[in-house]
Amino acid sequence: MIHNAERSEVLIHALPYIQQFRGKTIVVKYGGNAMINADLKAAVIQDVILMTCVGIRAVLVHGGGPEIEALLKKIGKESRFVDGLRYTDEETMEAVQMVLCGKVNKDITSLIMQAGGNAIGLCGIDGAMLKARRIGGRDLGLVGEVEEVNVAVLSSVLDSGAIPVVSSVAYGTGDDEGRALNVNADTAAAKIAAAMGAEKLVLMTDVQGVLRSVHDPDSLIKAMTLGETDGLVREGVVSKGMIPKIGCCRTALDGGVRKAHIIDGRLPHALLIELFTDEGIGTMIVNEEEGEKS
Questions:
Q1: Other residues' Cβ atoms within 10 Å of the Cβ of residue 91
Q2: 249: Cβ–Cβ under 8 A, 6 or more apart, which residues?
């Protein structure tokens, strides 16, 4: 049992962080097992609501790979991936749009409302919030790269006191003007964080963070600079699916975001532990200049 003295100690410990982040924007990419497991889902929702209650301007960006996969199987559509990205033809795009902009987005929005928060579900097409151009050089179908973020849409939602819940479907430009394009949710979150001048980008994953040895959970790297990530990629310490996540952190930091975090969304209340404790829970990445201040 936790005694009152311990409870008060926890709250006092969090106070400096609450003061530091009050009024700041934090963009959270919500994905992985935390979107599937009911208990973890409830914990994430509670975390985001608490963030807003202490004055943080929280933006929640989500994917929905497993749900998309389930619908494609149901309609007899075989998935195809190119360099880790889902090949998106017209039929697949319809499924992506239905799942992400419809079911998943509205389910998350509804859960926030049920838990006493206030949320507005959006996709990148709304107000042309995420403008994207089709990725060139590879035949990925209707897969885009975010080129522009309409911050006004997100700011108006935040100013109203609501949490924007954003699905990663974008408004096409150029030859695809007005067409729905499938965009990577991690990348979309990074672009949104940079455009909004966010304090932090937090990527929720199904791993602890960046490990020096993938088989040793005690080898977690708690903090590093972008320059150090380059060395770890060359050494092969950072490999496979972690490379694009590091790339998203770079996009955010190069765009002016102060800190980027890769955290383990499989742990209940991972967001609160990362934001409001000295120890944190995952890997924090900063620019060289920011690293000198830390």
A1: 11
A2: 190, 201, 203, 226, 229, 260, 262, 285
CA angle 177/179/182 to nearest 5° reads: 125
Question: Is the model's pTM score more than 0.85?
Answer: yes
Q: Give the burial class of 257: count Cβ atoms within 10 A of its Cβ; 0-12 exposed, 13-18 middle, 19 or more buried.
A: buried
Instruction: Identify the H or E element spanning 129.
Output: none
Q: Which of 193, 206, 261, 248 is nearest to 25 (CA)?
A: 193
Residues 6+ apart with CB under 8 A from 203: 29, 186, 189, 245, 248, 249, 260, 261, 262, 263
Picking from 251, 225, 102, 73, the residue whose alpha carbon sits closest to that of residue 169 is: 102
| Overall size of the chain counted in residues | 294
Percentage above 90 pLDDT, the chain: 74
pLDDT digits (tens, 9 = 90+) for 197-227: 999 999 999 989 999 888 888 899 999 999 9
